[in-house]
Design a protein that fits this description.
single chain; 196 residues; mainly alpha; 9 helices; 69% helix; VPS28_N_sf; Vacuolar protein sorting-associated protein 28 homolog
Length: 196
Amino acid sequence: MYDNFAELFAIIKATEKLEKAYVRDVISPAEYEVECQKLIAHFKTLSSTLKDIVPSIERFHDTYKMDCPAAINRLVTSGVPATVEHRAAAATTHSTSAAIVAECVQNFITAMDSLKLNMVAVDQVHPLLSDLSASLNKLSILPHNFEGKTKMQDWIARLSKMGAADELTEQQARQLHFDLESSYNSFMAALPTAGT
């Protein structure tokens, strides 16, 4: 038990240091994203293992006086790296390229198909939605408050609060599929037509 507590403590502390390094521009966005994804994956696996012993990560954080607000935000609230959450439009110069649009379409279809195949565990759904959110954020033609972006961020935040082995209920899966389909339709409508 204490080994697991030590691992959880270390993951939270490492995430806090990583967040500070990213904010101070000590680490490149690409390196940050890779390392942050690893820490989030480790955190989700460990927190689902410890969910009976540590029902609240925030309480664990407070009990051991960790003072890691950025880590708690990244691991518990957001569940995705800051680069995914706040993808800068300037970072993608050719953001309306066909490749990015194709990537978005592929991610939409993959996520919808996985739900149809009853893949409803958090560790199956979360990566698909993270990929979809990342690809949507690459397109500067989409407004910041685009329906698909906000719905995917809401779902990612909701899934981040669940354990990796937890499964969506039938109602949640149906709602997610509906949100994916309506977001996909809005996405297709937002794309410029061939003549413009």
